Amino acid sequence: MKLSLDISRCIGCKLCQIACSAEKEGVYQPTAARLQIEKIYTMQGLETKVAICTQCLDCVEVCPTEAIKYENGMLTYSEEECTGCNECADACPQGVIVVKADTVGICDSCGGSPECVNWCPHGALTFGCREGGGVG
Amino acid sequence: MKGYIGKVLRIDLNNLTSSVESLNLLWAEKYIGGKGLAMKYIYEELPPKVDPLSPKNKMILMTGPLTGTAVPCSGKLTIAAKSPATNTILDCSIGGHIAGEIKYAGYDAIIIEGKAEKPVYLHIENSKVELKSAGNLWGKGTHETEFFLKATCGPEVKVLAIGPAGENMVPMACITSELYRQAGRGGIGAVMGSKNLKAIVVKGTNGVKVADPKQLTARAKEIMKKDTLSDDNLWAYTDGTPIIVELSNSTGVLPTRNFQQGTFDGFDKIHAEAVKAVRKDKKGCLSCGLGCGNYVNTGQSVVEGPEYETLSIGGSNCGIDDLEAIVEFNKLCDDLGLDTISTGNTIAFAMELTEKGIKDFNLKFGDVKGYLKATKNIANKETELALGVKGLSEKYGGKEFAMQVKGLEFPGYEPRGSWGMGLAYATSDRGACHTRAWPIADEAYGDMDPFTIEGKAELVVGLQHYNAAKFSTILCDFWALSLETVAELLTLVTGKQYTEKDLKIIGERIVNLARMFNIREGFDAKDDRLPQRIYKEALKTGATAEKLLPEEEFNKMLREYYQIRGWDSEGKPTGEKLDELAI
Ligand code: SF4
Ligand code: SF4
């Protein structure tokens, strides 16, 4: 079960990021979200830059204390077991693990009801078993 | 009060220094933020009769308590100053993502004063504030400027920039962000240019705290799904503002050939369906589920737009029915840093002056080449058109059909086909403007009789209060929500109890404060006037054929407006009114 983004439906409002930071950190702060989605003009035109958890499980692999686990199609994270070594954040190819004072923030799919998906106004973000997940 | 950061960043360009001070929370209680609070700072900090293009003018970037939160459509930034186009108070609203970024960087507002000796840009990264040389950027368009600054400062920064028009202090120069979003009107870009300030670059990585985050997040989500994305508002997503072209044409209020007609033969070449046919993508501002932005590519030219104002004033009003040309005009204006409304009007006025044999600008209605060339020349100040409509009419005549109020050119709504709109133009704080009140929604586009003054003064007063309050929180114009809902959201954000009635009073206070500024500058009732064409020349086609707005009727409506407002016959707020509003 993972997040996917249909870029043709995304308007770049960042409500997903605002919602994620509100849910997870109790503050409205897009940079503290566990996903980053931006529509941005480049020389090539309007482009969508996307970083979402693809569940590659690199973080699970590198975590020395098994603070991050993959269970029932979702990541779980235990703050008690986390030593704040940030190896997961360094390993995350998407760069969506948020580094905090002595812990990290991992996309745990909000336990199965992702806030980012719930907020997305035009169904650009979805959550499920879509083949491959990721960006389309 | 929560929702505010509590900090103002002050930039002194004379000495190239910056300082941080507390936000005046007493003022914030009375004026909220955005438009209202920016105007309060302008009113208090500018000495009377300041030359708008002198270092004594100030430019204020103001967010609001809702900025950066989960409240939908709260991504706007107010930019205020004294206007070089009108000499009135001026506040503009710009979308994109810059407002949130300023707040995430740790400021409610940025106040810019003085003038740098050489071109500079302001680079803000949270508490790090630097003024850097912009010598290499001077003369460049806003697009190249933004690309350069993103390449230099990081792809994630947000940018406000001026183009050559702002540098040359053209009175219709705007400020651009994300290539196609504008603080458009009244020459705000010229103020920035007069300060030798090419751009403002912001990166913010902090958060915004509110009084009741759990409740706010839950309510905001509910309201977004039920209200923002309801049928009443969804037009912004499905069509965007081009949807108004057809509506205006069928109701006879589509400005055509410098407001000589209210219908346009080629309207169906520039209406929403035509725009959608070349649309490639959609884009919204921070926190906005509506995503009104249409990203179009005609093969020749690319733009996020064109909006209704550009399609009407830069299209039908110039006699142009070639969408590709309008898209090119729009892109040129955005890149050169020109307001499409004032630029389109000025070209249309020059076309009429030429056709009437008053002054030959070698321009004709429908002449695409001339129109695009004139646009470039205006930005580079290589033509007298850079004077704007009022300036041109003072020099060459044609005042009766110089479509402006107080020096600001008309937006895309024909007042002869919606009489309340005439009152809205005449009494708006910054000259002819459609965003202080938009009564046409109830008149030509709604159920009210558009050709009567009955009930219009009251309508315009109410709308002016509504918009002043809404633009101070700061929410986007395109979200039609009730003041009750605004009050509810504001309460959850600030922790201070707001009611619909409070917001109406605040709205009224803001309108009166702006009026007091303008009175201090020497404006009075004689400036609340429309050009003679509106009073004397009947329209000829469509739903508005034979219609004008007779001067006596207009005057009656204006008197009634003053009366409702508690202003005297000179249009001046009475001492009683000011006391009542605690100004
Ligand atoms: S699923 Fe939850 S944790 Fe993951 S990005 Fe979305 S809101 Fe954030
Ligand atoms: S909420 Fe949806 S539309 Fe908005 S930026 Fe996120 S994915 Fe895109």
From TrEMBL, chain A:
Span of domain 4Fe-4S ferredoxin-type? 1-30, 44-72, 73-102
Q: Which PROSITE patterns match?
A: 4FE4S_FER_1 (PS00198), 4FE4S_FER_2 (PS51379)
GO MF entries:
4 iron, 4 sulfur cluster binding; metal ion binding
InterPro entries of this UniProt entry? 4Fe4S_Fe-S-bd, 4Fe4S_Fe_S_CS, RnfB_subfamily
Gene3D superfamilies in alphabetical order? 3.30.70.20
Q: Which UniProt keywords apply?
A: 4Fe-4S, Electron transport, Iron, Iron-sulfur, Metal-binding, Transport
**Which Pfam families does the annotation name?**
Fer4_3, Fer4_4, Fer4_9
Q: Which domain of life is it from?
A: Bacteria
Keyword 4Fe-4S applies:
yes
The name this protein carries in UniProt is: Fe-S-cluster-containing dehydrogenase component
TrEMBL record, chain B:
Keywords noted in UniProt: 4Fe-4S, Iron, Iron-sulfur, Metal-binding, Oxidoreductase
Which Gene3D superfamilies is this protein grouped with? Aldehyde Ferredoxin Oxidoreductase Protein, subunit A, domain 2, Aldehyde Ferredoxin Oxidoreductase Protein, subunit A, domain 3, Aldehyde ferredoxin oxidoreductase, N-terminal domain
The UniProt record lists the Aldehyde ferredoxin oxidoreductase N-terminal domain at 4-206
What cofactor does this chain's UniProt record say it requires?
A: [4Fe-4S] cluster; tungstopterin
* Gene Ontology MF terms: 4 iron, 4 sulfur cluster binding; electron transfer activity; metal ion binding; oxidoreductase activity, acting on the aldehyde or oxo group of donors, iron-sulfur protein as acceptor
The protein's superkingdom reads Bacteria
Q: Which Pfam families match?
A: AFOR_C, AFOR_N
InterPro entries for this protein: Ald_Fedxn_OxRdtase_dom2 (IPR013984), Ald_Fedxn_OxRdtase_dom3 (IPR013985), Ald_Fedxn_OxRdtase_N (IPR013983), Ald_Fedxn_OxRdtase_N_sf (IPR036503), OxRdtase_Ald_Fedxn_C (IPR001203), Tungsten_al_ferr_oxy-like_C (IPR036021), W-dependent_AOR (IPR051919)
Please report which protein family the annotation says this sequence is part of.
Belongs to the AOR/FOR family.
Protein name (record): Aldehyde:ferredoxin oxidoreductase
Q: Which organism is this entry from?
A: Desulfoscipio geothermicus DSM 3669
User: The organism's lineage?
Assistant: Bacteria, Bacillati, Bacillota, Clostridia, Eubacteriales
